[in-house]
Amino acid sequence: MLGLESFSDELLGQLLEWSPTVIVTQETAEKVHAFGIKIDWIISNGVKEDLQSDIKYMPAGTDSLAEAALKYLVTHNYPAVNIITDDLQLKDYLLFTDKINMVIFNANQKIYAINSGFSKWKQAGETIELLTGTQQPLHLSGLETIHHHRFKTTHDGFFSMQFDQPFLFIAEEL
Fold first, then answer.
1. Domains of the chain, first to last
2. pLDDT tens per residue, range 75-88
């Protein structure tokens, strides 16, 4: 967890139902501990704190905190990760899109990388936002443009996206 300021307690509880490995930053460790959540790792380049006796510490070194955590997860063959952050820096995730299934929660958005041919069922009127630029052509089905990189589903059912890039990051409203 890179930040919890804009994240709902209810959604956090849902993510923790599966007893995941919990990696937090030094800045979020006390808040997470106060919620009674067992922390597995604290990633930082700072001083170690005594919050729980069995916490392991992971130095970030020259990597960003997100990159260091993702390197650990990929190296240890984790298939997926949920990332909660208050400060979205997509550049930290670019090298990992083909190595681990990532869902990033930022503000009121659920963000993830998609491949061309992606389709998903949504209700009419829901918003989808492209967070990375596209090289033309971008073929959409079931979506209408609201603004340059924002789209709205036209009907209950599947929308799809076709493009010529390896992947795109999209965001859904929570």
1. 9-105 (3.40.50), 114-173 (no CATH)
2. 999 999 999 998 89
